[in-house]
Design brief:
With 320 residues, this protein is α+β, with helices and mostly antiparallel strands. The protein is built from 10 helices and 8 strands. A hairpin with a 3-residue loop joins β2 and β3 (69-80). The longest helix has 52 residues, at 241-292.
Length: 320
């Protein structure tokens, strides 16, 4: 709460009141920095800028996961209609609402029973992208019982099941495999500046040590093995070589077909060469038969019987 009060007071300083101390930054490797500005600077932006206000509700949590992993805090986020994680809140039309009034109006639709004040203001950042948006962030510490009451109330709010799919708690611990807990949670998809605001609040409010935040972010950026590679490692096979073998199969089959065709051609040529002498012998046998039997009448053979039929005719034996 002290950090929030300091940020709120810093944002309320008028212009020309003296040099302001440098605004805190995230400073976590792998997370792009957003340009910070004070609340006063944000309020002086022209009409071409839009203002979004979101809030992080949290409570100290003395619970232990599996009886050995301290939970430390319960931090609320919500699953949105588009499948992205974000904080409760939305855009505020500065023509009609103050930042806090606009934020509370949106919170009433999504949560139903919480109101924030300027004392809960934490930070403002200019967002990246083609749209000129300044993102304001608030944080309110509650008791665990109050937080649980808000979770129950959110289920009965107007937006539940429509723009809001449900509330979720952020796991702030990291398990022994260095992925379970916060690293896996950070691997989800977040809307807009929600991921940056989560990490910024966890650091500024001393909820997670900075080195633990850096380790969690670094774990999400390590390249993961594809599922097929993991399956191959379990079976001992090398799937990368399989496509090359499969490409080599058509070449091998083509060579076999060519060799088979050449072999068949050679066999056919040899067969034709062998049939020519046989045909000559058959013609000679017919001629000899006609010589031996000069008076014999020509025997008609059915059509379709070739030299084989002629060769089967009995040969006249010489008379004694």
């Amino acid at each position: 709460m002290a950090a929030m009060g300091a940020m709120a007071a810093m944002g309320a300083l008028p212009a020309g009141a003296g040099a302001l101390p440098p605004l805190p930054t995230l400073g976590v490797p792998g997370v792009p920095e957003l340009k910070p500005l004070t609340r006063y600077e944000a309020m002086r932006l022209g009409p071409g800028w839009s203002h979004s206000c979101h809030a992080m509700l949290y409570a100290p949590n003395p619970g232990m996961l599996f009886g050995r992993i301290p939970l430390r805090y319960a931090v609320l986020m919500q699953m949105r209609f588009d499948g992205l994680l974000g904080f409760p809140g939305g855009f505020v039309d500065r023509r009609y609402w103050s930042l806090e009034d606009g934020l509370n109006r949106v919170l009433g639709l999504g949560l139903g029973c919480v109101r924030l004040t300027e004392a809960d203001y934490l930070c403002s950042h200019l967002t990246e992208g083609p749209h000129r948006v300044v993102a304001h962030f608030y944080a309110r510490q509650l008791t665990l019982e109050e937080l649980h009451t808000i979770e129950i109330s959110a289920v009965h709010s107007r937006d539940h099941g429509l723009e809001v799919m449900g509330m979720v708690r952020v796991p702030l611990y990291t398990q022994k495999d260095r992925m379970g807990g916060l690293p896996n949670f950070l691997g989800n998809s977040f809307v807009g500046t929600a991921k940056f605001q989560l990490l910024f609040a966890l650091k500024i409010l001393n909820m997670v040590p900075e080195e633990k935040l850096a380790e969690a972010v670094a774990a999400t950026q390590k390249p993961k093995k594809p599922a097929i590679d993991q399956a191959a490692g379990a079976t001992g096979t090398v799937p990368a070589a399989k496509p090359a073998n499969e490409l080599a199969v058509p070449t091998k089959t083509g060579n076999e077909l060519a060799d088979r065709a050449e072999h068949q051609a050679a066999v056919q040529a040899a067969g034709e060469a062998a049939e020519q002498p046989v045909a000559g012998l058959e013609s000679q046998a017919v001629a000899e038969q006609l010589v031996v039997m000069p008076g014999a009448e020509a025997v008609e053979h059915p059509a379709g019987l070739g030299a084989n039929a002629v060769a089967e005719q009995p040969v006249a034996e010489p008379m004694e």
